[in-house]
Design a protein that fits this description.
globular; 9 helices; Glutathione S-transferase Yfyf (Class Pi), Chain A, domain 2; about 10% strand
Amino acid sequence: MSEKLTVYGFEASTFVRTVRMVLAEKGAEYDLVPVDLMAGENTTPEHLARHPFGKIPVVEQGGKRLYETSAITRYLNDALPGKSLVPDNIMNRARMDMAIAIHDSYGYGAMIGLAGQHLFPDFVGGANEEVRLDCLEKTRKVLTEQMKMRGDSPWIAGAELSLADLFLAPACFYVSLTEDAGQAFDVPGFADWWARAQDLDAFKATQFDMG
């Protein structure tokens, strides 16, 4: 990959952080162009020309553009040199895909919803105890299933770090800042995985200023 990558996104976004963690694991250089969701910059004509649904991240390279984090991370894994973040073993690869699907379908909304109740209630429509408890229950269920999937392996999809771990860790970071973290994270197997995830150089390198 000769041409430099450009990542459009809000560094506080969990999906942008996932992409940046992949790039960090690969040792790749890139330009991060801010798109501030809080300021509504994702709804400008300029950004809608990049992503017709107004989401982030978007990656551009060599005149080509990709959006949707699953597609972006698969591309980066295949296109960039370095250790693969997709398992060779077909069962572990399926476990990785299942874990990412679980996160996208059930985990992200619950975990960011839970974090939002504590950290940015105005952005999620105001504090609501019923919503908080529902998000807490769903977060625990998602983490329980992910850890069941992991079993005795150090990582979600086997012995090696995979994209599945890089999808989950950024959302867990937000939950970790809340008063519900102790209860949310009190599921078998989570503590070991979370300690390992936080110790990744890519996790540390993509930390951002919460202001």
